[in-house]
């Protein structure tokens, strides 16, 4: 079995994920595990407005709608940029801006 790419959380993303209700947290873990195994999550969409190669995992449960924004195109790790509960139909600009800032900071760190 190939080595799994580690998952690295940026900023407060891990704490934000831990704040999800248990079923949504478990589902997020399962979806990230699929990404680690080279598969796409069950429900996702590209987030090119945040950055090249950035994707959003979409999770729905009784507690509401939850999102995990990540990028997996780099060799060394899967980077989770932002985790949040979606309150409206349209993703809040503050959530998109935060994910975009973390993506830009990551690119600088990686020398991209």
Key features of this structure:
single chain, 112 residues, 5 strands, YaeB-like fold, five-stranded mixed sheet, HigB-like, alpha+beta, globular, Phage-related protein
Descriptive report:
The chain has helices spanning 13-18, 22-36, 93-110, and strands spanning 7-9, 44-46, 54-61, 64-71, 78-86. It is an alpha+beta fold. The chain has a single domain, classed as YaeB-like fold.
C-alpha Rg (nearest Å): 13 Å
Helix-strand sequence:
EHHEEEEH
Distance, first to last CA? 29 Å
Low-confidence stretches: none
Q: If strands are numbered along the chain, what order do they take across the biggest sheet? A: 1-5-4-3-2
Structural class: alpha+beta
InterPro entries: HigB-like
Protein name: Phage-related protein
Pfam family, one: Gp49
Give a brief outline of the structure.
The protein has helices spanning 13-18, 22-36, 93-110, and strands spanning 7-9, 44-46, 54-61, 64-71, 78-86.
Write the layout of secondary structure elements.
Layout: E1 7-9, H1 13-18, H2 22-36, E2 44-46, E3 54-61, E4 64-71, E5 78-86, H3 93-110
Parallel strand pairs: 1-5
Antiparallel strand pairs: 2-3, 3-4, 4-5
